[in-house]
């Protein structure tokens, strides 16, 4: 009988790597933070899917200040691989965003 893989809900925080002053110096008023954030969200999805070689369900979970919290559905093995890749800086966001935190969403 095939073993069913348990899917974990993972929270991934992404944010601009530098200060907001640096963001404004770099982009000025020509582009909004929310637009760069949206592009970085899409970039994150693409990078994870390419590394895991399968479609992963992503959703925006919430925003806390300038941090976007994304929820992804991954197996434990996939989560460990994403952590390893992030530790090796294998997610080169074009717009200087970074993954600042990852954790398993606990059921309440």
What is the second-level CATH architecture?
Answer: 2-Layer Sandwich
The CATH class: Alpha Beta
Regions with pLDDT < 50 over 5+ consecutive residues? Answer: none
Q: Which shape, going by the Cα principal axes?
A: elongated
Strand numbers in spatial order across the main sheet:
2-3-1-4
Mean pLDDT: 93
List keywords for this structure.
single chain; 108 residues; alpha+beta; Alpha-Beta Plaits; four-stranded antiparallel beta sheet; 4 strands; 31% strand; elongated
Question: What does it look like?
Answer:
It is a single chain. With 108 residues, the chain is α+β, with helices and mostly antiparallel strands. The chain has one domain (7-104): Alpha-Beta Plaits (2-Layer Sandwich), CATH 3.30.70. Helix content is 37%, strand content 31%. It contains three helices and four strands. It has helices spanning 20-27, 33-52, 76-87, and strands at 7-16, 58-64, 67-75, 97-104. The chain is elongated. The protein starts with 6 loop residues before the first strand and ends with a strand.
Quick synopsis:
With 108 residues, this protein is of the alpha+beta class. The chain has helices spanning 20-27, 33-52, 76-87, and strands at 7-16, 58-64, 67-75, 97-104.
Secondary-structure map with pairings?
Blueprint lengths: L6 E10 L3 H8 L5 H20 L5 E7 L2 E9 H12 L9 E8 L4
Antiparallel strand pairs: 1-3, 1-4, 2-3
């Amino acid at each position: 009988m095939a073993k069913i893989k348990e899917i974990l809900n993972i929270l991934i925080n992404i944010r601009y790597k530098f200060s907001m002053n640096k963001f404004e110096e770099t982009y000025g008023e020509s582009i909004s933070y929310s637009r760069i954030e949206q592009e970085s969200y899409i970039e994150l999805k693409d990078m994870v899917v390419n590394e895991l070689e399968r479609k992963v369900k992503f959703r925006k979970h919430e925003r806390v200040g300038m941090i976007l919290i994304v929820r992804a559905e991954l197996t434990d093995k996939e989560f460990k691989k994403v952590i390893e890749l992030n530790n090796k800086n294998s997610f080169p966001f074009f717009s200087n965003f970074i993954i600042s935190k990852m954790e398993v969403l606990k059921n309440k």
